[in-house]
């Protein structure tokens, strides 16, 4: 019983304390004096592409599932007037299930 209180405090503190804070950085990447628009989207080995309205704004966004890495990648369509302009949007796949074999 004498170990209950320190153990309780330890588990309570471990739930509250964070070692690192994660925030996504938007650092511009240039190659041959041109800014790469989706430089931080990640590499794909065997992607399956699909158009779907992921954010319910009426525009078809771009979704990719990588069969090798079991990762979900989404690109938001920010185009106007019938044009397409895809930008990397990882928040659109936050609730997708993890890929498994």
Molecular structure report:
The protein has one helix at 4-16, and strands spanning 29-31, 34-36, 47-52, 61-66, 71-77, 86-88. By secondary structure, the chain is an alpha+beta fold. It has a domain at 33-96.
Count of individual helical segments: 1
Total beta strands: 6
Structural class: alpha+beta
- What's the oligomerization state? single chain
Shape: elongated
Largest sheet: 4 strands, antiparallel
Q: Average pLDDT across residues?
A: 83
Defining traits:
single chain, 101 residues, alpha+beta, two-stranded antiparallel sheet, 1 helix, 13% helix
Question: Secondary structure elements and their pairing?
Answer:
Layout: H1 4-16, E1 29-31, E2 34-36, E3 47-52, E4 61-66, E5 71-77, E6 86-88
Antiparallel strand pairs: 1-2, 3-4, 4-5, 5-6
Question: How would you summarize what this structure contains?
Answer:
The protein is an alpha+beta fold and 101 residues long.
């Amino acid at each position: 019983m004498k170990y209950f209180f320190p153990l309780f405090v330890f588990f309570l503190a471990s739930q509250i304390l964070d070692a690192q804070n994660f925030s996504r950085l938007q650092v511009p990447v240039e190659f041959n004096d041109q800014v790469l628009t989706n430089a931080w989207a990640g590499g794909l080995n065997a992607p399956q592409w699909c158009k779907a309205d992921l954010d319910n704004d009426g525009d078809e966004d771009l979704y990719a599932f990588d069969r090798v890495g079991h990762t979900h990648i989404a690109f938001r369509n920010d185009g106007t007037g019938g044009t397409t302009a895809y930008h990397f949007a990882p928040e659109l796949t936050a609730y997708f299930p993890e890929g498994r074999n």
